[in-house]
Amino acid sequence: MTAATARRDFPRAYGKVGSLHRERLWALRLSYTSLIVAAIIFLAPPVYMLMTSLKTNAEMADQTLSPWLVRSPTLEHYGATLENPLFLGFFANSAIVTLLVVSITMVISVLAAFALSRMRFWGSQTLATGVFLTYLVPDTLLFIPLYQIVGGLGLLNSIWGLVLVYPTLTVPFCTWIMIGYFASIPKELDEAALIDGASWPQMLLKIFIPVALPGIIAATIFAFTVSWAAFVYPTAFITRPEEMPLTIGVVSQLVRGDTFAWGQIMAGALLAALPPVVVYVFLMDYYIAGLTAGATKG
Fold it and tell me: Most buried by CB count within 10 Å: which residue of 38, 96, 272, 281?
């Protein structure tokens, strides 16, 4: 190619490079704009709750002031909430129910997923699909028959009734997650373990659970979030304040007729949201690290 031809073709190639650069720049700008808009939409409610919880009652009652600004920050609402024995009881009830439900969910989900994904038997695929389809049934339809079951067992107004019904929300989806992780493990591991004389429980404990740890963590986070934040079931099954979890206790005990203790409601809601936030902060890093380690293993 002559020098004249090269000079003639250079502007065309340069134009393509410049066009690609502009497209990437616009894509980057669009991505950041979308992220900023999404962040504003999702962060506006908790920021508003925080601002309200730091205001005095007089400042909240003054309609001339901006709802997003705090003139005289105070922690009196947090103090009143934490000193309230009912709130501490709500927190304890939520903690007990969540820990029990997460434990029950993970035991059932891991065993069911291992059986459906590795121990092939007639109808296993259909059963696995059916397990996931049960998760698609909304809890607003299930709570009526479940109310009759819980009432027949004498567990209404008891946290044990919640421990019984919450797994109907957590087990199907967690089982589906674990099926995907177990199914992605090479079959050569099964064969090697069987040749070495390992039993199915040994394979599960020593091979599949360590390898599928990211999936177990993801399922645990999901079960914890659903159990901690459930609202429909406790609203239907619990009416006594001493048995209420945080999700309904804060609202039911701080609203009297047409009187709303907004400061304590916002403070209690933020304190109730703190445990899931802490769980996500600590476990999400471990979850991502587990995925990265699994992807780079030879």
Answer: 272
